[in-house]
Amino acid sequence: MKRRDFLKRVSAILTMQGLLGSHVSLLGQVNSGLSSKKQKAARTGVILDQDWKEFRAGYKELKVNGKLPRELTGVLFRNGPGIKDFYGQVQGHLFDGHGVISAFYFNRGKIRHHARVTETERYLLELKAKQTVYPLFGTDVKVPKDIELSSSWPVNQANINAIVVDKKLWALNEASGFYQLDPKTLTVVRKGFTAEEFQDWPFPAHPRIDMKNKKIYATTYLIPQGGFIVYRLNFKGEVESYKVIKMPTAPMIHDSITTERYIICLVPPYSTELPLDVEDTIVSGFRFFKDQPTRIYVFEKENLENFKVFETKGQFAFHFDNAYERGNDEIVTHFPSYSDPYEVINKAFAKLDFANIVEESQHIPRYKKLVLNTKTRQVKEDNLTTGLAEFPRINTDYGEKHNRFTAFIGNSGDGGYFRELFYMNNDTGAVEKFLYPKEYHLEEHVVYPKKKKTSERSVWIMGVSHSPKKQHSVLNIFDGETPISSGPIANIELPYLLHYCFHGNYYDKSAI
Ligand SMILES: [Fe+2]
Prior knowledge:
This protein is mostly beta strands. The chain is built from five helices and 37 strands.
């Protein structure tokens, strides 16, 4: 079946009210008759390598180099596409692959690791079929002609982010539903929202948590309807309110950010015409209309019906670090800005061609400061870095407040893609950095507040580095109160190479 037919079929089925309404849940139906080693291993919760060749037992206590802070007693969850080669079908685009949750369990100076594939509807169906059955985000695959689709769940690999909401681990995709997992076993409990009315509605990879008012805000784009949706949830993960902005196109909105009063959404001219006119992958429908502006929607948290729209030059953002209000009229935020997302997402990420992005440095994301004036509607932009910057994280105690420090990963320009950890003072531009050994590439580094807080820098910074050459991965722990350039205070070498994870979070054991 051609991709166009597939999307048209989905388009005909989905409507905004009762979105993705009726479908038959296939969870639990595909296990019968399967006795392969892979199936057994997947069901019993051991981890698998990236080539699907063998499985390794998890949960073993790992050797710690240095001193692991004893106050860290909780779990670092990470999520990413863990199965890149599925029965001979290489899911080559960076964003494709069945989601695998990687979990590091901290316990008073000791640590164990475990990982498990998220048993999505798609994974279980394709496991039974022993092939990639449904189209992917960016990898061209031959799909069977007789596919019957009645929802977007079969295209969802739940492989981007992991957050805990009301003692459940949400494995997040984007522009599709999420899965609720038991955080202790990593097994699927249910899919989507608990309320039947919203169960199948699309959700983003980056919901934003308002700790003060105990709300969750989230924005995602709508394929195939066009436009985007903004949600307000309570801390039980229930939808309290939502607002749909209808558009003739679906602009890729991966993240949004909040201040005390507002939700800020960057709506880029990186969008797909609807109905989608694509032959194979979702991403091939996206074009970057660089001469058109990026629109910034600022919604009032209290009443999502009230919003203002700003304009700035065409650009794209995956992630924000934070946003805060300055005086009565200004909103400040920071984010890595892409001047041409098509070159990166459609082309470079399709080949995992990081080196080429760095060489063609005009396409790399640069960390930028944005100031919106809600009175004059002026938008002011300043570049904070000239080198590569991505995956910004902050001390979460400073969310929606004026944060000075942001941790991100990138590259100063001496080769490799993500090789350096940066810790930047956004006010002064001063930056500390730690360069990992050449054979390693990095994941996002998570920032978690210490129990004893003396400043914004009272944090632990933790992130995984991977060495395909050494066939292992390493979890690194930094102390935010010592210079980052002095390196990690502890690291944990895993005796295997993990899959690359995009996002995740650390939670104290009381949260799970
Ligand atoms: Fe992301």
